[in-house]
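FAQ: What does the model actually see?

It sees only this:
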Amino acid sequence: MENKKKIKVGLIGLGTVGSGVFKTLKNFDDIEVTKIAVRNINKKRDIDGLDNSIVTDDAYSVVNDPEIDIVAELIGGLEPAFDLIVTAIKNGKHIVTANKELLAKRGQELFKISEQYNKVILYEAAIAGGIPIIMPVKTILAGNKINHIEAIVNGTTNYILTKMDVQGASYEDVLKEAQQLGYAEADPTGDVEGFDAAYKIATLASITFQKRIDINKVYREGITKIRANDMEAANDLGYKIKLIASANMYDNGDIDVRVHPMLVSKKSTLAHIDYVTNAVMLKGHPVGSITLSGPGAGEFPTASSVVGDILAVAAELGKSEYILPMMRCKHSEDANMIDIADTTNKYYISINAKNNKGVIGKIGTICADNDISLESIVQRCVSDDNTANITVITELVKEKNMQRAIKLFEQDGNKVNSLIRVQV
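And it is asked to produce this:
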């Protein structure tokens, strides 16, 4: 049998994911990693079989290397990643990336350039680590009209919320512990304020609904205001609190994409996705509702998706002039995105009210005046300072009416501790 030419791969980044990709690719005889760009060439790397002569701190030497067929970009961030990928495409290379921020903010430009040069960009690892989601949506689920996505796509926040729930602990205490264990970054903003989840849901919504999603119009709210009391109240009411990334396409084609904490019914699968596990639930016709869950981050789970993409490209090289047509970007229409103020939701509200006569009546009146129907209103204990803790769950309400009512509660001398949307 003739000796088949090895497919040559260049890696940009040898951090957690890059190391996993290098180690996994060693199991494939027909693929060879011939160059790896790193930020710090002097860093000790304990990787079996790593030949230091292929490691460089000049990333452009990877994308400009005429021998390399596929470049895997695993450094994240906007620059230099964007320029490196564009350079690689112009030099005739196919791209595999795990870079959710880049796809959410500049994906449109990248896909346009890749099409101009007839190259593919695959990004299975950018949405939910090891969970296969892009390939299924673009291939096996392509016959569906999917109109609803609900997902837990950030392990750090899911870990923190699970720990708060299990331990009855405060957000601050659990965050510290998560940082010590390496589950949260020293600066956790990208995770805890919902940026990471927003990038992922924007990209997932754009391929699922086949419309361009403007990341600046994705409503985003993190988990920093969630209190141990909210966890307890939610449990009593039959819910768990999760950071949910959701995308909805209405019958008229309008699209609502957002990330925020939610009370999720304990009857729902997503309520039981705990610690660093991720899950993506899709609803559509004809499939109905399916949930894919698994590890959303980590060395080998993410490497699994990156390597899968590399192998998908490698299998096609030399077979056709236009490879992997199903995996390419096929949409150029901008989504008509709805502002959160114009959406309708159910709400959980926690209020500290002066324990005066008729306080519940007054809250009821403000709600009625703003077209808000209540599903339940519970007065919990009265504190030493003679304030009562009141928990309200509303029926479906317009967001702008709810926000107006919150202002009125506060003008009335009450303190609104929490306002969290409830899964419908």
